[in-house]
Specification:
It comes from Gordonia namibiensis NBRC 108229. This is Aspartyl/glutamyl-tRNA(Asn/Gln) amidotransferase subunit A. Keywords: Transferase. GO terms for molecular function: transferase activity. By secondary structure, the protein is α/β, with parallel strands linked by helices. The protein has a single domain, classed as Amidase signature (AS) domain (Amidase signature (AS) enzymes), CATH 3.90.1300.10. Helices cover 35% and strands 14% of the residues. The protein is built from 13 helices and 11 strands. The protein has an 11-stranded mixed beta sheet, sandwiched between helices. The longest helix has 23 residues. The relative contact order is 0.15.
């Protein structure tokens, strides 16, 4: 499945002092832009093929202290930008549901490793959808936390405006337990009864695959049966969300890598070169305008979450695409990330979880979004949903272990 870039030696992957910790015995893989001391950290690029980490990322150190064993670093899109997780260092990971379809990106190896049983939990990073898209494509649960909540030191950046790190696992419970360690606070026991759940109709129906719309509709009915109040709600300023995220992310990508690209262009894959070229065309005035739009969106979200508790949308508007579908890298990213980018502009948490099966046999994912610092609400609601459904229990035909 090409999901692992490096296996971590046992003496580097565990902290003996954590033997009695809450994650004792949990096997964790980390995306290969997250540093594990003494292990290669390639960021999915031939440019960094021999780059060795000299420290543990803060999140890795926290997991070790809690008793987890870091078993592996996991495949990803080059420099953590891209929705298919193809890269110049090792090729892309293979979706265990269908080898001919993308695993999502950029944390594709993290989604594959969890779905296929290579690890119990994986860490990914999310800038524009990089945890949520692999979770949706691979049928697992993934949390993009509020920005700034978790320490990002030891993680190679994409854009400081949007970067987050978070866990992927089979179940919301496993995600909650891992997030609690990373955040240093227990998020169990949060009251998630009688929530006001908004379903922004254009996000669910406009240009959305009918099977995906139906699966989200069934989730809406489940939420009603569980006693939640479902309302319709517009999402102000969402029309420009993709353009705002692209402007800032691509310009940041260019600022980070332009000199490297000039020095050794053949060590970057074509898709990355195209993205950097786009970023170099973005002016300071365009960046400033994008930041103003971001601030307007966040202010609107603060107002919106004064009236509601959670927003429910599909994670993707389309079935999991086939590899080599013929679209440009930018067009494919815009289509797959159409519904993730707005919640990257928001500085609160978003969680993706499986809610159905497409007629193609591929998983269908939904997103739950809440106000800043309300990760506990999302996780409690996701646990409710999973207690009354079985989508998270499905396993792909290619799997290392049958253990849940």
């Amino acid at each position: 499945m090409n999901t692992v870039i490096s296996w971590v030696p046992e003496e580097l992957g565990a902290d003996p002092s954590g033997a009695q910790g809450p994650l004792n015995g949990v096997r964790i893989g980390v995306k290969d832009n997250i540093e594990v001391a003494g292990v290669r950290s390639t960021c999915g690029s031939a440019y960094f093929a021999d780059r060795m980490a000299d420290r543990d990322a803060a999140c890795v150190a926290a997991l070790k202290r809690a008793g987890a064993t870091i078993t592996s670093t996991l495949n990803l899109a080059e420099f953590a930008v891209g929705v298919t997780s193809q890269n110049s260092a090792s090729g892309g990971p293979v979706n265990p549901w269908d080898a001919g379809r993308v695993p999502g990106g950029s944390s594709g190896g993290s989604g594959v490793a969890v779905a296929a049983g290579v690890v119990d939990v994986a860490l990914g990073t999310d800038t524009g959808g990089s945890i949520r898209l692999p979770a949706a494509c691979c049928g697992v649960t993934g949390l993009r936390p509020s920005t700034g909540v978790l320490d990002m030191s030891g993680i190679f950046p994409v854009s400081a405006y949007f970067d987050t790190v978070g866990p992927l696992a089979r179940t919301a419970r496993q995600v909650r337990e891992t997030f609690a360690v990373l955040a240093g606070s227990d998020v169990a026991g949060v009251d998630a009864d009688n929530l006001r759940v908004a379903v922004p109709r254009p996000f669910v129906t406009d240009d959305v695959d009918p099977a995906i719309a139906d699966a989200v509709g069934e989730t809406v009915e489940l939420l009603r049966r569980l006693g939640h109040r479902v309302v319709e709600c517009p999402v102000p300023h969402s029309e420009s969300a993709q353009d705002v995220v692209y402007t800032l992310v691509y310009s940041d990508l260019a600022r980070t890598h332009a000199e490297r690209l000039r020095d050794e262009p053949t060590r970057f894959q074509q898709a990355t070169r195209e993205r950097i070229a786009l970023g170099l065309t973005i002016s300071d005035e365009q960046r400033a305008a994008a930041l103003r739009e971001r601030d307007l969106f966040r202010a609107a979200m603060t107002d919106m979450f004064g009236e509601i508790d959670v927003v429910l949308t599909p994670a993707m508007p389309v079935d999991v695409p086939r590899l080599g579908g013929g679209e440009t890298v930018v067009a494919q990213a815009r289509r797959m990330g159409q519904l993730t980018y707005p919640w990257s502009l928001h500085d609160g948490p978003t969680l993706a979880l499986p809610v159905g099966v497409h007629p193609s046999g591929m998983p269908i994912g939904a997103q739950l979004t809440a106000a800043r610092l309300h990760e506990g609400t999302l996780l409690a609601l996701a646990e409710q949903i999973q207690a009354h459904s079985e989508w998270h229990l499905r396993v792909p035909p290619v799997r290392v272990s049958s253990d849940v």
